[in-house]
Amino acid sequence: MKPKLYLAIKGFDKHKVSANCIGALLKSIPVGHILGLQSIVFSSAEEFNRLGVSVPLSCQAAYYPAYRSVVIHQNSNIDKLTHVLFHEIGHYVFYSRLSSYSRKEWVSFFGKNNTHVSDYARTNASEDFAECYAFYAKQDWSKFAGVYNKLTFMKSHVFNSSFY
Ligand SMILES: [Zn+2]
Questions:
Q1: Using one digit for the tens of pLDDT, what is the confidence trace for 47-75?
Q2: Residue 62 dihedral angles phi and psi, to the nearest 5°
Q3: 8, β-bridge pairs
Q4: Domain ranges, ordered by start, for the chain
Q5: In angstroms, what is the span from residue 130 Cα to ligand 1's centroid?
Q6: What CA–CA distance (Å, rounded) separates 143 from 141?
Q7: Disulfide engineering: 86 pairs with which of 31, 43, 64, 134, CB 3.0-4.6 Å?
């Protein structure tokens, strides 16, 4: 039996992005990647600060582990939104869906190679994973030039048949 997904998608319509658009993006990644995720919400950083969750106003999006939720704080255009959505889901996959063995293997990559898929990916192993995850989900293979081991890892450990 296929496990059932209980994922709420909230707050996008008032920001001129349909929930269907988010749903279509989610269909392009394995269902096992978002299993257990509670919600994907659009809520501005100002709104979050008013609720007592302190977020810098420049923050575009974040994954909140305590709520198992991805929150998008800003929407500039659909390309950026797609990237940050997949990036934050990448954090969820890294911490909650990947085996600890695979996670350790990924961490061991970090620091071994000075080439990265983006400047932000240099921050730490978790951001590196989230950036690689986003580029893989967008099928932007050109970003993996020089980091073939990460492309192979994404293919064999993350986007493999066990998650579909
Ligand atoms: Zn991140």
A1: 999 999 999 999 999 999 999 999 999 98
A2: -160, 155
A3: 39
A4: 1-97, 100-159
A5: 6
A6: 5
A7: 134
